[in-house]
């Protein structure tokens, strides 16, 4: 009796996992198809390069801002070491 229940449970487990795997596979394929269609028919006028701002150099940082950040970090560490 117990062997029969275990085999039925394994069948349901495999069936359930198979259905989930099939659903996720189809979902990924449909998302790829949607991306292809969008990229093909709705061309992006703004390229990513024009949207992204260039990174700031370390020399561009305001010394007062750096000092405020360092002070806040030191206060935080002091409060953590007390408690």
Folded structure, characterized:
With 83 residues, the protein is mainly alpha-helical. It has one domain. It contains 3 helices and no strands.
List keywords for this structure.
83 residues, mainly alpha, 3 helices, flat
Number of DSSP strands?
Answer: 0
Q: What is the tally of helical segments?
A: 3
Number of discrete domains = 1
* CA radius of gyration: 28 Å
- Which stretches of 5+ consecutive residues score pLDDT under 50? none
The coarse silhouette is: flat
User: What fraction, in percent, of the residue positions are helical?
Assistant: over 70%
**How far is the first residue's CA from the last residue's CA?**
60 Å
- Mean pLDDT figure: 86
State the secondary-structure class. mainly alpha
Strand content: under 5%
List the helices and strands and how they pair.
Layout: H1 2-41, H2 48-51, H3 63-82
Q: How is this structure best summarized?
A:
The protein has 83 residues and is mostly helical. The protein is built from three helices and no strands.
